[in-house]
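Homework help board

Subject: predicted structure for assignment chain

Our instructor gave us this sequence and asked us to write out the predicted structure in token form, then describe one feature. I got the tokens but I'm not sure how to describe them. Can anyone check?
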Amino acid sequence: MRPRWMTISVDRHGAALGALAVALLVWAPRVASNGSFGLPFDSVAGSGLAFAGVDADRSDAGAAARNPALHGATARTSLTFGGHLAYYSTEFSGDAERTDTDGSTIDGGQGGDPGRLDLPLPDIVLSHRLNQRWAVGVSLSAPYGITLRFDPDWVGRYHSVDAVIRGVELVPAVAWQAQSWLRLGVGLRAQVFDSEFANAVDIGSYIQQEVVREVGFDATTPACVLAGEPTLPGKYDVLNRLESREFALGWQAGLRAQITPGLAWGLSYRSPIDHGLSGRAGRARDDWTLEDFDSDPCLGAVRVGLAALGRSYEEEVLNLVEAASTDTRFRTDIELPETLSSALIWQRGRWAVASTLRWTRWSRLQAATVRFDNATPTVVEPLRFNDSVLVAVGLRYRLFDRWTVSAGYAQSSSTVDDTTRSARAPDSDRTYLSGGLRWQAMEHLALVLSAGVIRGKAAVVEDRTEATGTGHVLSGQFEPLTLVWGGSRLEWRF
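My token output:
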């Protein structure tokens, strides 16, 4: 009777790449602001109020990007041209272990500061009033975006190395003055979504774990020791890089109601958008070849066991490792969530007081599936996201006829908690502080500036690579998230 280890099954070895690929593809909704990588920077004037009151603020020519009912609300024709620059910063401190294999500590640094100064986030809105009741407009904004690049040799490289996400959308819209006190608007969201993700994958640890799961003990390490070879964990790493660009459509709608002469209420809704992400999965072996793997004496027992059963080591092991470490194409479906935002703004004389309550349904994302064109198996990655809520208050004051200042404060809830936070999602509850300035340079031309900071709480991480089965655990803490932004725009009204 053959020992049980001779019957090991290795038909899932290629899943290591797939699982990490999914983990990186779907971490994005948990990284930057307002539900993580959902950015509220669609109006420079609005960011100067910490995004308070935007849905109801008809004095903000850029607010129509958020609420299409505001197109044509105050001028026959208006144009804003500008944008924001934002820099994200955090640092990790901790360590990582191969807990389920040899228990070794994963070497490497702390990753440095992964934040970067990204491309400008546009604030471009053109509105034109056709007559007393109808107006049309178009806006260009970036509702999603973040850039994170960890050092490639950091201790958390099996969890994340690079993540770059950019979502830019063009929204043609129409607004209708339904009543003297009520405006309605609707728009079509044409969105382009770019993504780039990279991480290291420890194929050696995965193979060792598969052997343990099938036969009940580690049959590869003794073979490594007898041959004087390093053990499998960390021996066959691959850098996995996924890149995609997709186009999808959604819609948005809004209303503005003038409740009293000084008090207005605004409500806007952005629909969910289904993205079928597909692109290239580039895979680079870390200083090893397929020949090195094929001749590794650590796998001699696997080869002998399969041969004794009349099965093919080449088909069941070597070909799958080749697939998992060779360029291919991938596809996954992600549904970006809907957002419902409500705002009040009260104006009296030189003063304006604003507030916003905004809800984003990130709980839609509970799992994702990634499929590959080659033999890498399909992988399902659990997400377990929570909805996020932003509450903001702002104050604006007209100093002189040409000068207006503003300030704002907001709080936003995290999309993950201490039990679901990962290195790919160092998210936590956040506080927003901002200020703004408007200068009416000429009768029809104004300059608007804003600056602010988003500060998160320290984020404790206990992250296990459970989807890959490698058993790597990253333990530590991300320092409080800091996102600093500045915005400027020119504004014409006629």
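Reply (TA_rk): Your tokens look well-formed. For the description, you could write something like this. Confidence is low (pLDDT under 50) at residues 1-36. That's the kind of observation they're looking for.
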